[in-house]
Amino acid sequence: MIGAVHKRSVADIAQELGADLARRAEETEDEDRFVAENFALLKTSGLIEAGVPAELGGGDANVDELAEMLRMLAKHCGSTALAFSMHTHQIAVPAWRWRFQKAATVKPFLERVAQERIVLVTSGGSDWIAGSGRAEKVEGGFRITARKAFASGAPAGDLFVTSAVLESGEDAPAVLHFAIPMDSPHLKVLNTWRALGMRGTGSHDVLIDGHIVPEAAIIVRRKAGEWHPLFQIIATVAFPLIYAVYLGVAESARDIAIELAKRKPPSQLTIQLAGRMDTELAAARLSHQSMLAAARLNAPSASSVNQVMIGRQLVERHAIATVDHAMQLAGGAGFYRATGLERRFRDIQAARYHPLQSGPQAEYAGAMALGLSVDRIF
Question: What is the pLDDT of residue 125?
Answer without folding.
Answer: 81
